[in-house]
Every structure is written in structure tokens, then in C-alpha cells.
Write a structure and sequence with these properties.
The protein is mainly alpha-helical and about 190 residues long. The protein has eight helices and no strands. The chain is elongated, with a radius of gyration of 21 Å.
Length: about 190
């Protein structure tokens, strides 16, 4: 995650430097930016590969009924990602403000384009940390430890910045609670 943060920060600075120079598009192949764009592509391919492996691991854990491990996984992933998102949001805010200010001068378009691309890439990184969360929701639901409404709420929260971390913490707590044989209202009517 920290490598990804530095890649995204580097992308902002590279695009800002290129947009500030008049002949940036002519000399783009000479300034080493090809290697940088390769690193950005490599980071995102690595993120995709890790996400696929986490999906496979999550499915196996749901099938094996390892709800506690899924809860721990989402908790660890969300907490480990906090520095990544804090740094990205700070840089994103500065770049968005700078791009908007420079838009008046005509060179902010590239910076705002970088902000848009980085926002999408950061969102995809956030979604990748939610995979264990969705698996934990499925496992908790399968074990009837949470209701449908709470499962939907958790699933939505895992798609929203900042709220996803709260959902991860709550899923961790839910995964630690003991199992119940049946909801109280079912037992009362038996």
C-alpha cells in the first residue's frame, strides 16, 4: 500500500511537471516517464493479482466456515490501508486545489486529469481491501448471525471511503461473537 502511495504521488508530480513545460509532449519519451508509467501499471496489475488471490482465499474461508479469520482479515486490511489513504487524500486535495487554481492559467487540465485517474485507482485499491469484508458478511449471513438488513448495510459501507474502515471494525467484532442456534423470536414461537 505504501508503494502504491508513492507511485500515485509520483504520478501527480510528473504530470504537474510535464504540464508546466511547453514542450512536455515532445520530450515525454526522453525524460524517463515511460519507466514511471510502467511502475504505475505494474502497481495496479500487482493490486489486481493480490485482489484475485484474496477473492480465492475468501471463497475458501467462507466454504470452510472460517468467519473469525475473515473478520480478522478485513480488520487487518482496513487498518493497514489507513496510511495509504491518508497520504493519498492529502495529495489528492492539494492536487485538486492546485489544478483548480492553475486551471485559470490553462495548465491545470492535466493535473485535474491526474486527480481523476488517481481517484479511480485509489477507489479500486479501497475496494480490494473490502474483499474479506464481503466474505465475512456472506459467512455471517450464512450462519444467521446477522440479518439481511445489516448484511446490506455492511456491504454498502464497504464501498464508501472511511465508512469501510468502520464496517471492517464492526465485522471484526461480529465475527468474534458467539453463534446463536436460532433468533429469539423463532424460539419464542416454537
Amino acid at each position: 500500500m505504501l508503494l502504491g502511495t508513492f507511485v500515485y504521488i509520483g504520478m501527480f508530480f510528473l504530470i504537474a511537471a510535464q504540464s508546466a513545460s511547453e514542450d512536455a509532449y515532445q520530450s515525454a519519451s526522453d525524460d524517463g516517464s515511460g519507466a514511471f508509467w510502467g511502475i504505475i501499471l505494474g502497481w495496479n496489475v500487482l493490486l489486481l493479482v493480490v485482489m484475485i488471490l484474496v477473492i480465492i482465499d475468501s471463497v475458501r474461508k467462507v466454504r470452510a466456515g472460517k468467519t473469525r479469520e475473515l473478520g480478522t482479515g478485513v480488520f487487518a486490511a482496513k487498518l493497514a490501508a489507513i496510511p495509504f489513504f491518508l497520504i493519498n487524500f492529502a495529495i489528492w486535495g492539494l492536487a485538486a486545489f492546485g489544478g483548480t487554481v492553475l486551471l485559470v492559467k490553462g495548465i491545470g487540465i492535466a493535473i485535474l486529469a491526474a486527480v481523476a485517474v488517481a481517484t479511480v485507482l485509489t477507489y479500486l485499491a479501497m475496494i480490494s481491501t473490502s474483499v474479506y469484508g464481503w466474505a465475512a458478511v456472506a459467512s455471517l449471513r450464512r450462519e444467521r448471525r446477522i440479518g439481511r438488513a445489516l448484511a446490506v448495510l455492511y456491504s454498502i459501507l464497504l464501498c464508501v471511503f472511511v465508512a469501510d474502515t468502520l464496517a471492517g471494525i464492526l465485522l471484526f467484532a461480529h465475527s468474534r461473537r458467539g453463534r446463536t442456534a436460532a433468533p429469539p423470536e423463532v424460539v419464542a414461537h416454537s
